[in-house]
């Protein structure tokens, strides 16, 4: 297995649209495990549904791969990325995140775990956003 797999997979998200979403299937195992702050699914068909739902709910989506750190001893990589998007009612969001990517013995991505802070999205939700802002004000240090 080559580190290039992780770079190619990470960069395949750049320019990703609903129309070309299936290009990810060339990199992933059919039984991939995908997790983000809202979803935890197994199988490419279910991962695909997560992205279809995202593209249907958002506009102006743009993924940018910032850094890729392969670890060939564990057949895994960490990817640092930015996702810019917009919701019709909630406005634009700029999200920085990290993904842990695992490859299987056949050289396909078998696990993709996303780690990012959803609180900027939550803060824009009526009622919940106010409550989260209040909690954050109580837990934050005072300078």
From TrEMBL:
Signal peptide: none annotated. InterPro entries: NTF2-like_dom_sf, SnoaL-like. Gene3D superfamilies: 3.10.450.50. It comes from the Bacteria. It holds the Pfam family SnoaL_2. Coiled coil: none annotated. Residues 13-112 form the SnoaL-like domain. This is SnoaL-like domain-containing protein. It comes from Allopseudospirillum japonicum.
